TrEMBL record:
One of its GO terms (cellular component) is plasma membrane. GO terms for biological process: bacterial-type flagellum organization; protein transport; SRP-dependent cotranslational protein targeting to membrane. NCBIfam families: FlhF. Necessary for flagellar biosynthesis. May be involved in translocation of the flagellum. This is Flagellar biosynthesis protein FlhF. Pfam families: SRP54. It is found in: Cell membrane. It comes from Ramlibacter aurantiacus.
Amino acid sequence: MNVKRFIGRNARDAMAKVRAAWGDDAVVLSNRATHSGVEIMAMPGMPRHSQFGPELEADSQPPSQPAPQASDAMSTLSFERFVRERQQRWTKEEAPAPVPAAAPVARQPQARPFEVPARRAPVEPGRFAAAELQKEMGLVATDTAPTVSDPMPSAATMPASDPPPALGEAVMSELRALRTMINTELSGLSWFDSARRSPLHTRLMRLLIGNGFSPALARHLLKRLPDGDEARGERWLREVITRNLHCVGKDSIVERGGVFALVGPTGVGKTTTTAKIAAGFALRHGAESVGLVTVDTYRMAASAQLRAFGNILGIPVHTARDASSLLDLLKLHERKKLLLVDTVGLGQRDGRIGELLDALPTGRVERLLVLNACAQAETLEEVARNYGARPGQRCVVSKLDEAVKVGPLVDLLVRHRLLVEGIAAGQRVPEDWSAPHARWLVEKALAEPRPSVFTPDESQLALLFTGAGVAMPGAQAGHA
């Protein structure tokens, strides 16, 4: 393949050299402006019979003989007008007839069309790329001419006007990253500006985050913060959280009884909590009014522990080994004022949780979710979600005496609108069981945090609140 460079004072001069060398069938590969004029890369055109078959040989002309009409046009018209008229004439020509399938033409290596970059329109052999050339004349080309050795996508498989899919995806990815970066920077500036103009807002944000509250709930609360001094703002925050933390009153289990199944992960204190509730109810209504059932047949120590508590309280403990036996025991104890079912402990990611919950008859047994106050915020969230916590469901807070921060627990209770039944803060039965008080829990949750390696500084705190558009998971909490 013979590719040659032609340099002229202008485009017309360079095109004249191309035509003088290879005639009207020359193929223009590229053109660009240089310091010495205009440079055109061209190659000789292929014979028409090599592309379209023997039946079209009569229509082809020798490439060495320029058409007289084209010569006249070059001498009398401007170059731009010349190429425009030729392009119009070419579009009016009749399209070549399809090649008969019975007479395939042998492939010739020298007749292989030159593959051009996808950026330029495909060039049909035997024609000048007039429209593309006219477009390129007004630009100062910054890219180098294509080389024959560089394989490019074929014009037949990929239109030149469409960018490659991989390139388009890369550009979109860059644009998305740029948009995210700009939004983050603007949100960060907004945070620092807000911190400068509202020191109270910053201090309360530090208080919430330092005590383990989620950034989502903190933003949700503080965007409703009224104007005022520091004491008034902190008092407002405590009142709002207290009002949204729901605790039972006279309708507690210890007062009214019922049928409850204690559910929760392994080790949260279900068995001990069962004994505490049974002991408190027995002291008020008598041991004969309480029934105890265990379905924890996996751990012998758990059932043995509950039987030991039952012996102390004078309450027999029955074991249900399957759903059918559980239904029989429910019918056996239907005259009891309080029936407690101690279930097997399953981690919040255990796939058998669904089977356990399905085994509890809906409408006859109410679930009592036991939450470990020492658990991480993310762990508490998984427990509530996987054990099917819903607004208004009763729950028990265990191991409150061991918790360093109560903020994650209070945050969960507020967002999911759970009803706190009681608080277990120790191993003693029944002494370490108490009725819940929302204000006391909030005061404990909003205690001034002690400085530690987990306390965020100013810059780290700003990063937590740059995503102002993130919606708060769970229920709406701001009823200020």
